[in-house]
Amino acid sequence: MVASVTFGMVPVKSPVRTDTTMSARKIQFIFEPLMPRRGAREREFSDTTTRMTASFPSEAWCTHAIELLNADPDAPHAAKGWDGDFGVVIDRPEGPLAIALGAPQGGRLPAPRFVTVAELEASKPRYFARAAQSDWWALIDGSLDPIAAIVQKRLVAKGDLTQVISRLQYRGLAERWLERIRQEG
Hints:
InterPro entries: SCP2_sterol-bd_dom, SCP2_sterol-bd_dom_sf
Protein name: SCP2 domain-containing protein
CATH architecture of the domain at 59-184: 2-Layer Sandwich
Domain SCP2: 68-161
Order of helices and strands: EEHHHEEEHEHHEHH
CATH class of the domain at 59-184: Alpha Beta
Helix content: 25-40%
Strand content: 15-25%
Pfam families: SCP2 (PF02036)
Shape: globular
Radius of gyration: 19 Å
Number of helices: 8
Number of strands: 7
Structural class: alpha+beta
């Protein structure tokens, strides 16, 4: 027998035993990875307001995250020659948050614009990423690998990878930025 199970937004076909010989310990072992870790947050995103004045993911939080990125001394070097704008959608329980970011200007990203999903899609950004709120935070806190997120269809990403790959030397910039976000937000 095969059951359809949903992890995040991805339906997965999974074999299910129809007999009752499976012990409670075996069931616990199977579902342990899906259960919260000891010491995990009581509430999802409950610790996302530590230093940043806004909680994840709000317009103020996203604006501050861009300010943190622009403050890095390597940002102008990484942005040099970048071509294309960005579109990001965070699927929140209260409704999606769509963010339009223009291409870097003078080595810095412009302030984000908050638009509707329809407006974002109509603008056809060169780079686009969309995921559920919990998956975005998992990417930020490092518990979800970006490649795994794409393969598992938890993150939809579109765009020219050539520019991304050519900037792998600035990987440290991304790591510092994410660390600051984790510390502050």
